Amino acid sequence: MTRIHFAADHGGYELGRALQSRAEASGFDIVWHGADQLDPGDDYPIYAVRVGQAVVTDQDAGTDAFAVLVVDEAVAGVVAANKVNGARAITTTSPRAAAHARGVVDANVLVLEGIAYEESAWLCVYAFVTASMTATVERGRQILQIEEFENAGTIEGWAIQLEPDQIAVRHE
What we know:
The protein has 6 helices and 5 strands; from the N terminus they run βαβαβαβαβαα. By secondary structure, it is α/β, with parallel strands linked by helices. Strand 4, helix 4 (95-105) and strand 5 (109-113) form a beta-alpha-beta unit. The two termini are 33 Å apart.
């Protein structure tokens, strides 16, 4: 069963709780990392870090997990969540873009603005957590390069050497 870690600041609390309810009703395993009640004075960084750490810990343990953060300003939440080693946070306004981000960078944290319409936000969440990564050598190599820089500060050592017959053929 897929686990979704949810959190929200004051600007996304109502939408975050609504999305949490929809995810529970759809059969996902839910963990709430936000405040128990609306706190008008809270700040987004703590929630971004909490969901980022939780999803990375779960994924490292082999659990199928994602995170959804709903905040007043999505781009700020993306920056904060991406400070967690292993978190790949994105923001989106469409289900297609959410699924595409999963396929391209194996994103594991979705950040939404609290002013989003519930129905469109839910469609983005559902697309995000049900999409899969595009399984090509190119995508894997690119993610390894990102992880290498994140961990070692360089992009040199993890280059994947391919034989011509190993290169994925794309039909577009």
